[in-house]
Amino acid sequence: MAQSSTLGDKVYRTILFAAATSILLIVAAVFYMMVQSSMPTLQRFGIGFLWASEWNPSQELFGALPFIYGTVVSSILALLIAVPISLGIAVFLVEQAPKKIAKPIAFMIELLAAIPSVVYGLWGIFVLAPFIREYLGPVLQDNLGFLPIFQGRLTGIGMLTGGIILAIMITPIVTAVVRDVLEAVPNTQREAALALGATKWETTMIVLGNAASGIAGAVVLGLGRAVGETMAVTMVIGNSPQISASLFEPAYTIASVLAANFADATDELYLSALIEMALVLFLVTVVINGLAKLLIMSVAGRANASKHT
Amino acid sequence: MQSKISIKDLDFFYGKAQALFDISLEIPEREVVAFIGPSGCGKSTFLRTLNRMNDTIPIASVKGQVIIDGKDIYAPGTDVVALRRKVGMVFQKSNPFPKSIFENVAYGIRINGIHSSKEDLNDRVEKALRDAALWDEVKDRLSMSAFGLSGGQQQRLCIARALAVQPDVILMDEPASALDPIATQKIEELVVELKKNYTIVIVTHNMQQAARVSDRTAFFMLGKLIEYNPTQKMFTNPDEKLTEDYITGRFG
Q1: Of 3.10.350.10, 3.40.250.10, 3.30.420.40, 3.40.50.300, which CATH number belongs to B3-247?
Q2: Dist. CA A151–CA A158, nearest whole Å
Q3: Is B56 close to A194, i.e. CB distance below 8 A?
């Protein structure tokens, strides 16, 4: 690139450079602030903060375990529901559907991703929660009530409702990424399978095998979204810091405890406890999203490599 | 001659655009037939009508008949999966699955349920690799990824994979066009060897290759079959002026 010596270009380059570096500075500043502000709990409770299960701000008892538990379980529930559905949609769109149908369906899925979280939350409170209380819950209890996860009171608000809302919210992104990954699988792989007398199903299995690491990436990306999702979950999960085997019982996630309590956290230790959990959430989502990107890139990279050889 | 495949009045369309015009051709059993012609002449499209690989293109349509062993493969109710098992295909670019060398060859055997036992499967994989002249090079690393092989080895692996399901016919779509001369020579030797047991149809850009490996050659231009004759005659004394011009390099 030829270096221009005009003043205008120098200013222009400086502005661009500043814009690009600002993102790093913001991340660094957020991280620094969180570490600083969580010092009181870090010093008082140490690493044990993460597995202490008592949470009672008025007695200065701060344990993160109920929130970590709620986050992990609601996210896993969401993945268990969303991943098979997303795989089904993506395979249908790429392998089966004529273009005329695939385009509008893909468009609608992208629209789903654009709906604000709070709208899902309201829908969860007024539609999903009553549905679970009146229909799904009783059916599960009648048939599978011997399982501890389906015992307990049916209020409609709780871990299961949170998990289902999360599943609906991550389905679009998981579907979109899986679709992209499947489309990146070279057509020569499908033809190779078909030419050996493979059925449509067997050919699809070959395609999925090609896309395996990218699909894993999509799942991890969905996990990242589920872990960090806040508003809708806060509205339906019940916000109670307890660890219960029952999926019908209220629970709490890290994201929702932050959203629901930051205004009440007036004393230093309480605020510090919240910020330390925010730090945990920050680090976990950074790792999860980084991993997802790497996995997805590995498939795209291979597809490109095979195009160019 | 005993025809393995007879094509009668075949027309092929991409949507409204006609790509093949009224092609009739007899392919004898256990011979190598080469399709030559300039790029875009329809030779690959024609090859892919013989195992209905063009079915994967939604707008493609076919008129006419392709009769293999007395049955029209475009007749309603044709089992396309069974057809493709009988008419194997090797592609221009080697396309092994992201599996081990062994599993690549075993794949077709497994999905078609050809093997009777674990040993039988092993034997069939070994035989296919031997028939594809690859066994000695890979026998010590069967469990390694197929992507670790060279381009020429990958292509022979794809041939082994096709042989493993015991087809009668093997279609080859420019199988050596991406390979260096040594690897190309190996593929050509293999084609001549395979002729003993299989009917082979090979599309090639390379006229010397057609002359070296084939018994008969078909010359296509602009979707039409210009000439079909024994290779010997085709390259020494063709019937058509166009063929002569193409073979002597006056165009194309």
Answers
A1: 3.40.50.300
A2: 12
A3: yes
